Amino acid sequence: MKTIINQPALLVLDVQKGFDDPHWGKRNNNQAEENILKLLTEWRKRGWEIIYSQHLSLLPNSPLNYQNKLGIEFKEIVKPLPHEVVFQKNVNSAFIGTKLGNYLKEKQVKTVVITGLSTQHCVSTTTRMSGNLGYDTYLVEDAIAAYEITDHNGTYHSPEDVQKSEVAALHKEFATIVKTQEVLTQLQQLNSQSQ
After folding, report:
1. Domain count of the chain?
2. Judging by DSSP bridges, how do beta strands 149-150 and 136-145 pair with one another?
3. The CATH number of the domain where 64 resides is what?
4. Where in the numbering of this chain does the Isochorismatase-like domain appear (predicted)?
């Protein structure tokens, strides 16, 4: 794993109650939210940048439709604190139609650590764009989750297979793939080196 240096920002993408709706079908990695909380706890302890995105879908049947008050709420386990930044969006990328890019420049953030829901939607799209925009991008594979899909040929893909193929496509090309514990261990090592 590459060394994470200069105070990375933690991105928490769309961890909203609407993703618990049966509409999405089966998902993998039920520990994603707990792992995001572990990272949030570490970032909060250090006073580092934490940035949330909140999806307000314009699609009428989406559980994340902007008029669905319950669906667009953040899940309690990873709810933002009052001072933490939230960018609202209507499309998959957290960089499009928001001031996220400007905010990262203003704060001189060069490294981002990405978590959230769902792997094949906002996580993948935001990770690709982050890499293309030149950010040193880390994707935490056990702090994201995918949903089952049936493709245009009627072929079923399990959430586990969706997760594997999405992460494989992002690996090296757009991001460094890491696990929660790797990130936490590396940050603890940075602590001991600086003491």
Report:
1. 1
2. unpaired
3. 3.40.50.850
4. 9-153
